[in-house]
Please model this.
Amino acid sequence: MKLVPVLFLGLLLATLCPAQKRINLVPNPSFEDLFNLPVRPNPRNSFEFEPKSGYKPFQKNTKFWFAGSKTTPDLRITTDDNYSECRRRYPICDKARTGDMMVGIITYLRNSYTDSYREYVQTKLGKALRPGVKTYVELWIVKERQAKLVSNNIGIYFSDKKVEEDTEVVVKRTPQINIDSVINLDSYGWVRIVDSFIPDKPLRFMTIGNFYDNQKTELYVSEHFHGSPYTPPYAYYLLDDLRVWQKEEEEEPQERPSSPLVYDTSTIQINEAVRLDDIHFRLDRSELEPASLTELEKLHQLLQDYPSIKIDIHGHTDNQANDSYNMQLSTARARAVYHYLLDKGIPGERMSYKGFGERQPIDTNDTELGKANNRRVEFIVLPK
Model:
């Protein structure tokens, strides 16, 4: 008899150091920290499903952030209810990457006053960057669904003094970091940007926006425009989850405390299915419901903490429809989880997915409870 060793994920992960935690010099990096509550609705609602989003909440309620010029960046407040309402009408809707809040800036707009309108957001770092030390910057960015245009030139400018330009056009600075490629040109979803530079003097302020004129800005009509056909063409991007740290300030890895939002890795076995208990779809649909986000974030966190592991995502159904339909539905649901993680920045080569339809039941299909148990999405950790 061939002996098959049982390998626990905890043993594997003991040899894989979790992703190193780093000090973040950006205050309120996900824009969740608000003050002057309650948030009052914007005087003019520019966002179809977000009654409290706008420039006034950015100015009055967002801690530690302010505009870098005489313009009106937006605080976008995207609750699960807002998102669900939008998804009933559009295939693509805006949702913060973390929590409910994110910030929106226009990187190009032509209006009756100017052909080079720009918006900038700015914050004061927790402490000044030390000169001569390699400095890392990370942010997540996505095109706003109502924006007709996509652009390049998302720049990050660090300065020793606050940027206070009395203008609505291009702020003439040279950013230490600039995204030269066009964001969301061929696809839609959050894009993770990571870059670095070495400051030549102490720098305390960080400003984000397009610091280049129209001649140096690439513009394309987006394939993923979901707004009014009467909307004037502009490029508008959403920002979330910003980080700035310096090389010598990396913390030593720490053991993650026990939490309901984190998997107990000691119970996960290689090649054994782990059920995603709180994944929700509508009847006969493959679009993820907002109630699935907590469970999805647990899996996302696992993959972030252990960047060497790979997973296979499996979809299953009950036997209520025919075999061919069930195979298609189960595959589409597994694919939805795959694309969620892909949009969150998990590389595609670390994941695969497949559907099994009704062919691998774990309970009877003779009762409603049994059918509910058979309708599931699982993942397995693949051998190293």
In short: The CA atoms of residues 173 and 211 lie 6 Å apart. Residues 323-343 form the longest helix (21 residues). The helical segments are 9-14, 55-61, 80-87, 293-305, 323-343, 368-374. The two ends are 25 Å apart (CA to CA).
